[in-house]
Design brief:
By secondary structure, the protein is α+β, with helices and mostly antiparallel strands.
Length: 741
């Protein structure tokens, strides 16, 4: 093809500009070039060019050519048109004939390989060996574990494959994002995204139980994509769309080795190893690792290792061998015995007082549970806002001799003074308002002083109490109480002045004891007017020695669910009235039992028997007699409404008491399981003789509600009498804290 002609005028103009360009750059080149340069460079740019670059450039041939006028270069006449371009012709593709393609002969080896691959793919898709750890798609004959109507897990039908499937389902169901899917703001794209997130979550859950090669396939139900060309997709009801996860767990990894630091060198190494109940060959289980670490920490603390340290576990997984190597850094230290207790506030709670509260003595083997118990007991005094109990090494451990660890108690004072109020109501006793002021440490240590007052429909009281907690021992209490009271009931009207002092061994929420007791002295003067018509007011001077012993075999102090309780009260008393002296004994026996029928139902039974032998009923002050009825007795009847009555129908009290109660405490599941309903039936009677009887038994039935709080259940009971007497109310309402018994 001929080359196009060059524009000669333009080319010559560019040549004319070359000397000017060289003239501009030669000074820099000359400055940069040494006179001893290479010969090739010397020939190109001689030394004369370096001495006078302008003169040298003017001597070149290009400098002698005249520079044309730029306007002339750009005129249309100066640009010659391109001519002589030959015509180009190409044949149209339809006119071309392509040679026929001869197919290749198939290679027999490649064909066989293709058939084998196809067969393997079909086997993989159907998963003829469920649980083998390979395959995709839904599991044939799978066991389905629904979590919600829209979410389910599917496992291989053989339960020996992944025996923890219920635990996996529960844990996954509690964390899955799809659990709450289906509200109006959700869409199908969100479902897909959440399904991917939950797939990763399910993988993590399976690793907890040692399944590190699990395969998971998720599919949707209740929705099908429209066929191509079938028109617009129908609207999707997300409430009908579900997600199913098919789980093929694969092989379960096992422990190859377990390292427990320096436990092997400890004197009680065998016991510590038994506490960590994992061994090589056991299945890998993260929950078990955490649990056994806690068991080991407990064993170290209870075994005298006061300064033991247990680090975080490190689990290394070998996917090739399908095993795990567990390393638990443990520094057991030596064994120690208890030393002395040191208080940071000796004038507030002395070291001696704290030592009385502790359930250990110097020289006892160190036990962390006893140290923690001391901390809880100090907090329970209400005198400190925070407390830290720290063992401190006094004598190092040197086998075979144990070391000695003193206990440092760091205290921060809490407010000592409290103002409290209480409002109550029952249909039989009316309104009762109580207020109190107290200083819990007016006389250290733990010397409480309280002033209280009661104003109510039937009671008015003013009193003062001195109380010393942990008196010469843990949970031992000395109480002195003085009060003046007026009280009006359906049975009597009494004006009383009383002084009592009691020493008792208590049971507490921190340390619930099987056996408790109390002993005291009570002196009172009471002027009482029986409600019977024509009665006269009588003044009684009474001295009593109240004694009590009790056994508590229940599982909870405030809300028992199993076990029994038994108590006996005996109070020998002397009463002097109108110059006459009477001797008698007030005795009362209480027993209750609790049996769980199911996880949500507890049956509770109670019996109470009382007797006052030694004096006739008229020689006993009305306030010291037995009565029945009310929220803590026979519900459905008013307070003191069960028992003997005078001619006007007023309760007169008696010398014997018989009460029986049965109730079912049924959890409803409402408000997180905090609400229970309690159907009940109560029965009771009071006799005029000292021998308990069931003659004249009154029966009340009703329904109660319980709301469980951190400090015990709040109780609301509504009862009605089945065999009321004339004047008895048809409905009784009772509100209080704690169970009825």
């Amino acid at each position: 093809m001929p080359q196009p002609r060059r524009n000669t005028a333009t080319f010559e103009a560019l040549r004319a500009l070359l000397p000017a360009v060289l003239l501009a750059i030669l000074p820099q080149l000359a400055h940069a070039q040494s006179r001893e340069a290479d010969q090739a460079l010397e020939d190109l740019i001689p030394d004369s060019a370096m001495d006078d670059p302008k003169a040298w450039a003017n001597q070149t041939d290009a400098a002698k050519v005249a520079v044309p006028d730029p306007a002339t270069l750009l005129s249309p006449d100066a640009i010659a048109p391109l001519t002589g371009i030959p015509a180009i012709t190409l044949a149209w593709p339809d006119a071309s004939e392509l040679p026929a393609i001869t197919p290749l002969t198939p290679d027999p080896d490649i064909g066989a390989a293709a058939e084998q691959a196809k067969a393997a793919g079909e086997a993989l898709a159907t998963d003829v060996d469920p649980g083998s750890g390979r395959g995709i798609g839904q599991i044939p004959g799978a066991s389905i574990y629904p979590i919600t109507p829209q979410l389910a897990l599917a496992f291989p039908p053989d339960e020996e494959i992944l025996p923890e499937r219920e635990a996996v389902t529960a844990r996954f169901g509690a964390l899955a994002t799809l659990r709450k899917f289906g509200n109006e703001e959700d869409n199908l794209a969100q479902l897909t995204r959440r399904a991917r997130q939950d797939t990763d979550l399910l993988q993590q859950v399976l690793r907890v139980y040692g399944y590190y090669d699990a395969e998971i396939y998720h599919s949707t139900t209740g929705y099908a994509a429209p066929a191509e060309g079938s028109g617009p997709a129908p609207a999707i009801d997300l409430k009908k769309v579900g997600v199913r996860f098919d789980v093929r767990p694969g092989p379960r990894y096992t422990f190859a080795s377990i390292s427990l630091g320096d436990i092997a060198a400890a004197r009680d190494a065998d016991a510590l190893k038994r506490a960590f109940a994992l061994a090589p060959g056991d299945p890998v289980n993260s929950d078990r690792i955490v649990a056994e670490r806690d068991h080991l920490i407990t064993a170290l603390g209870e075994g005298g290792h006061a300064f033991a340290k247990v680090g975080e576990p490190d689990l290394g997984i070998d996917h090739a061998l399908r095993t795990g190597d567990l390393t638990l850094p443990v520094t057991s230290g030596g064994q120690y015995v208890m030393g002395d207790i040191h208080s940071s506030l000796p004038d507030y709670l002395s070291s001696r007082h704290l030592s009385r509260m502790a359930r250990f003595r110097p020289g006892d083997p160190f036990r962390k549970s006893r140290v923690d118990d001391l901390r809880q007991a100090i907090l329970a005094t209400g005198l400190v806002s925070s407390v830290t109990v720290t063992p401190r090494e006094v004598t190092p451990a040197a086998d075979p001799q144990p070391g000695i660890a003193d206990v440092d108690v760091t205290l921060a004072k809490a407010p000592q003074r409290t103002i409290a109020g209480l409002i109550g109501y029952s249909s039989g006793e009316g309104v009762r308002v109580e207020a109190s002021w107290e200083n819990r440490n007016m006389f250290p240590p733990e010397g409480l002083v309280r002033f209280r007052g009661v104003a109510g429909t039937r009671e008015q009281l003013a009193g003062a109490t001195y109380r010393r907690n942990n008196f010469f021992g843990r949970d031992q209490v000395l109480t002195a109480d003085l009060y003046a009271q007026t009280r009006r009931t359906d049975a009597y009207n009494a004006r009383t002045i009383s002084f009592s002092t009691v020493f008792e061994k208590q049971t507490t929420l921190i340390f619930q004891k099987a056996w408790v007791y109390s002993a005291g002295v009570e002196l009172l003067a009471t002027s009482e007017l029986p409600a019977a018509a024509g009665s006269t007011r009588t003044t009684y001077f009474i001295g009593a020695l109240p004694l009590r012993g009790a056994y508590d075999g229940s599982d909870d102090l405030l809300d028992p669910k199993r076990g029994v309780r038994v108590s006996l009260r005996v109070s020998p008393e002397i009463s002097v009235q109108n110059g006459m002296r009477s001797n008698y004994v007030r005795a009362q026996f209480d027993a209750s039992a609790y049996q769980p029928v199911s996880h949500s139902v507890v049956l509770a039974e109670r019996v109470r028997i009382g007797s006052i032998p030694g004096a006739n009923v008229n020689s006993i002050a009305p306030s010291r007699r037995f009565y029945a009825g009310g929220g803590a007795s026979v519900r459905g009847f008013a307070y003191q409404a069960v028992g003997p009555r005078d001619a006007l129908g007023n309760p007169s009290g008696g010398r014997s008491l018989s009460e029986f109660s049965l109730e079912a405490r049924v959890k409803t599941g409402l408000m997180g399981g905090a609400v229970s309903v309690v159907p009940f039936v109560d029965a009771g009677t009071v006799g005029t003789t000292a021998s308990p009887t069931v003659n004249g038994l009154k029966v009340g039935v009703g329904l109660g509600l319980r709301y469980q709080t951190s400090f015990g259940p709040i109780r609301i009971d509504l009862g009605t009498p089945l065999n009321p007497a004339k004047g008895d109310s048809r409905v009784g309402v009772y509100v209080s804290l704690g169970q009825a018994f």
